[in-house]
Amino acid sequence: MLLENVTFTSYLGGSLLLGALTLISIFLWLKRHITFSLMFASLISVTWCSILAWDSYSPSLTVQQLILCETLRFGSWIFGILQQLKYSNQNRKVQRGPFLLLHILWILAGIVFVIILPTLIDNKNQAYKLYVWSSLLLTILCIVAVEQLFRNSPHNRINKVYSLGLAGILLYDLYLFSYALLFGQLDAEIWRARGAVNGASAIFLSFALLAVSSQNYPQQNRVTISRPMAFYTTGLTTAGFFLALMAAGGYYIKLYGGDWGTVIQVTLIFSALISIAVMFLSESARANLSVYIDKHFFVHKYDYRSQWLSLIHHLTSSPEDNEDPHQKALKAIMDVVKCSGGMLWMDNQFGRFIPIATLNMNFPRQECEEPSGSEFCTILREQEWVFSPSAASDHELSNFNEYLPEWSKEIGDLWLIIPMLVDSELIGFVLLSSPPTEFALTWEDLDLFKTVGREVANYVSRNEAAELLAQSKQFDAYNKLSAFVMHDLKNLIAQQALVVENAAKHKENPDFIDDMIRTIDNSVQRMSNLLKKLQQTQPSSGRPLELKNIIVNSVKKCQDRMPPPTLRIIEDSLKVVADEDNLEMIVTHIIKNAQEATASDGYVDVTLRSEDGNQAIIEVEDNGCGMDSDFLKNRLFRPFDTTKSGKGMGIGVYQTREFIRNLGGDVLVKSEPGVGTTFTIRIPMDTGDHNSTAQVEQV
User: Fold this and answer.
1) pLDDT digits (tens, 9 = 90+) for 642-674
2) Pairing relation of β-strands 615-622 and 676-684?
3) How many helices, marked H, and strands, marked E, lie in the chain?
4) For a tag site, which of 276, 402, 419, 640 has the least CB within 10 Å?
5) Distance in angstroms (rounded) separating the CA atoms of residues 153 and 156
């Protein structure tokens, strides 16, 4: 077969297959899956391929006309891709900068290559160079547009398919024109195969588009390329750009370098080839490039959403049989890393790390510790380094293995040591045994393990803080109990002190002696009741009480203070269920507080009444100094907050409210500075149903 027939067959077959792609594109356009511009670009490609097929059979195209054909083909694809990307991202924010720049560049390129330059060039050789340069630059612009389509279409499968199919055509064009720029002429064999390559890509696009469009659209499945493909495609594309630049530099050196032009050109191109070879043969260079591609060009190794949910599930699940939180933290890390054994070391608060939790890991020593200031711990803390004792000596993970402690060498299956950091503080580290299968560590594994270590460290730290808080609350409860006891004892001591103070004056008075005996007896009974209440674990029993008697007794106890309280009993048959001593004590306490806040020429009124037929109301009103709103909201009922400097403990009002609330009532306070204060105590009245003894909780 003649070579002309081969070229004609290649481009004719390509035009037919591109025609089939155009028909499928029309179908997708009618279904509103793609834009008219993208469908029109396929039609332009059919026309372009048909023109080249006819020219191979009957050559008649000038170079200027060939430039026009290539510019229209590349320009239509660039415009179609950008319009498709704009259409498919109507409801999604995308970067507009690359779109605008590509529009401007391809329009300028079209104006320059189609209108201006061909009219200025008469020399056939110069026109050929313009054709190679313009085609190469338009190919690069088209590749950038395809890259934008692929990157900004995370869930659009049709866009992904178009990106991959066009990438194959454009990479071949890049190779074709880079070769022509490098060697100064188009390679005939590569040119002949160009039509067949376009046809093959059209076949791929046609079948892929039919498969994708037959499913529900749009799909959320992610279309990605494999790691090796991403690595080598990126590498080859970079090499192609590098060679194109070197060829351009070599061309101009040869053009303007005189006798030394050829020597310099060959030397420069050979140096470029050697540089590319060194880059791909260098393990470190390939490793760095591979990590960069891993991070930026494809889906990650782990499904971080599922990993994070699994970790949270392990850390927040309810403990089984009082499971130790350190054991739970160790299990969570082992589940993420997929290893069968582990050991958790924690700071013992004395500058030492000790093992406190172990699962399926044999440790030969019974007692072992690691100083927090050792070089091993310093590297864990400052560099957040993941140690791999089993790593080969030439591996990057073995860089600091010389600082591993001696005890680590006694663990035969030790695989990793992961730091546990809270901010910049090392609170512990985890030892892990080898995973059940072959496991090649990558940067992604290390990043995940470090992140998990930090999260587990926060969990352990919060758990320890919660335990300390629980202990603090226990001590606080003990201190409050002591304060309540001291408050009651203070009142009893005040009674005894009053007896002693008056004994010297009235010890010969029989009435005083009788009153003293009654006072001491009352104190003894109250102290005995106090001891009983401290010893019992169940709430104290309440009984029906005549509220009038409680109020009368409380007022009598305060008659020796100024101003003396006045009593108004509006209803005298009110009954409540409560502990008599406690209720009398809190009413007395409120009356005494009112007296202390009121001048001797003021008044303190005590009123007993009912409300709504089921609430007994005790009001204690004075015209004393009063309290402001801030004190009422934030300090009045706060325990251990007092305004009586050195005279009280600040628990009387708090104790009063707690006791009344346990009866089902409440305490309300109205006060105004300089005007006075009114305490209102509301207690549910006794309903008369005494089948079961009411229980009143002791505060």
Assistant:
1) 555 444 434 567 778 888 888 889 899 999 998
2) antiparallel
3) 20, 14
4) 402
5) 5
**166 in Cβ contact with 42 (< 8 Å):** no
* pLDDT tens column, 580-638: 878 888 898 899 889 988 999 999 999 999 988 889 999 999 999 988 887 887 777 77
Find tokens 């009110």 and name the residue.
574
With the C-alpha atoms ordered 388, 389, 395, 401, is the resulting torsion angle positive or negative?
positive
Please report, as a single letter, which amino acid is at residue 85.
Answer: L
- Is residue 564 within 8 A of residue 603, CB to CB? The reply is no
Burial class (CB in 10 A: 0-12, 13-18, 19+), 333: buried
Q: Hey, which of 64-78, 95-109, 436-450, 646-660 has the most confident mean pLDDT? A: 64-78
Closest-CA residue to 356 (of 374, 368, 364): 368
| Residue in this structure with the two tokens 């054991």, named with its chain if needed | 327
How many Å from the N-terminal Cα to the C-terminal Cα in the chain?
A: 109
Q: Residues 6 or more apart from 615 whose CB is under 8 A from it?
A: 665, 682, 683, 684, 685
- Residue 430: what are its φ and ψ, rounded to 5°? -120, 130
Residue with tokens 């106890």: 557
Residues 498-534: pLDDT tens digits? 778 887 787 778 888 888 888 888 777 777 776 766 5
pTM, two decimal places: 0.38
Contact in structure between 212 and 157 (CB atoms under 8 Å): yes
The pLDDT tens digits for 442-457 are: 777 888 888 888 988 8
Mean pLDDT of 217-243: 46
**Contacts by 223-230 with C-beta closer than 8 Å and gap 24+?**
223/157, 223/160, 223/161, 223/164, 224/298, 224/299, 225/164, 225/298, 226/298, 227/290, 227/293, 227/294, 227/298, 230/293, 230/297, 230/298
Which amino acid is present at 354?
I
The tokens 């390559």 sit on which residue? 197
Whether the CB-CB separation of 116 and 134 falls below 8 Å is answered with: no
Side-chain-side CA neighbours of 93 within 13 Å: the count stands at 0
Going along 300-449, which residue ranges are E strands?
342-347, 352-359, 370-371, 414-422, 425-433
Give the CA-trace dihedral at 130, 136, 141, 142, to 10 degrees: 120
User: Which residue do the tokens 């590569």 mark?
Assistant: 190
Assign domain 304-461 to its CATH architecture: 2-Layer Sandwich (3.30)
CATH class of 541-696: alpha beta
